[in-house]
Amino acid sequence: MHSLTLLSLAAVGHAASTMLRFGCSQIVIDRIDPLVNPGQAPSPHLHQVVGGNAFNISMPSTDIAELATCTTCNYADDFSNYWTANMYFKARNGSFKRVPQVPNRLLFGDKFTTKTTGGFVVYYVSPGKGGVTAFKPGFRMLVGDANKRAQGSKSMKSQTCFRCYSGPNFGGDNAAPCADAKLDTEAFPKGPCLGGIRSNILYPTCWDGKNLDSPDHKSHVAYPTAGPQTFTGSSVGTTCPTTHPVKIPQIMLEIVWDTTAFNNKADWPADEKPLYLSTGDNTGYGQHGDYVFGWRGDALQRAMDAGCTGASCSNLKVLTNEEAAKCKVPERVNEKWEGWLDSLPGMTPDMIQ
C-alpha cells in the first residue's frame, strides 16, 4: 500500500483487514528452480531469491519452516521462499548487464524495508478475521508464464505489471499497483524511466482445498469467478469457483529495479528493446513468480486474522536488518551473472527473444 489512494483506504473503514507489507533481502542469485525444475542444476534460467535458507536445488513437500534455520525477511516466522527472474540491460554492442534491485520506499515507518540488500517487498492481504485460510505446510504455486511473449487473448496487467517511475524517489507512485493507466504496463516500458522500474506480481486467491501443488503448479489455485482480484490492500476478491472454493491470502511481490544508469538511448540496441528478463524475454510478458510456503506454525493465520498493517503485527516477531542479512545459502551453480556478459546466463543467441 504505497500510493496516496491506498494509504487513505487503509486509514479509514478497513481497520479489520490485514495487509502485511515487509521487506526481504536477497538470499541468493542462482540458476536453480526447485519448483519447476527440481533436481536440475543448472536450471534453464537465472533467479533471484528471498526468504528462508531451506532453498535448494530440490525442496521436499514438507514443512519448510522445520528445515530452515534463518530467513532474510523482516517477519522472523516467515521461512517461505519467493523467487523471480532477474532483469538485464542489453547494450548496443550486444553485451548484457544485470539491473540492480534497490530498496523500496518508506511506508508505515518500516525502516527495515528501506535497508534491505537486493530482494523485494512481499505483501499478504486478508479482508479480516476468518476471511482467508492460510496456506498449509508443503503448499507451493507459480504465477505467470516464463515462455509468454505476447499479451494473449486478454490483458493480465492487474496480475503482472511494470511501473515506469516518472522521476526520482518513486516519482508518479500515486495509484494502486498495476492500476495507473499511463505508468503501468503489462509489457516492459517502451521509453526511459526517469526513476527506475517497479515490478508487481500478484498470485491467485482461490484454492481447491485439497492439493498442495499440481503438475503445472497452477491448477490447484484459481482466480475468483469475477476474474483476478486487483490490489486494494483489503480484499481477496469475489466468490471463488466451486472447483476452488477456499479463499487464500492475496500475495503480491514488489521489486524495484534501478534502470536509471541505462536511460541513455544512445546505449540502447537498434530495436530499442534494451530490457530482458533472464529467461531471454525482451517483452516483459514472461514475468512470473514462484512461491513455496514456509511460515512457522499458525503465524500466518494469526496475522491474517489480526488486522495487521505493514511490517508491524503485535503477535509476530520481527528481525533487524543485521540479523536477516546473516542468512545465506551457497550458490549451487558456479557461473558469472554479474558485470558485463556476452549473453544471458545459460542462454544461447537462439534462445534470446
Automatic annotation (TrEMBL):
Signal sequence region: 1-15
InterPro entries according to UniProt: DUF1996
Residues annotated as domain DUF1996: 33-295
Pfam name, any one: DUF1996
Keywords, in A-Z order: Signal
Superkingdom of origin: Eukaryota
Protein name: DUF1996 domain-containing protein
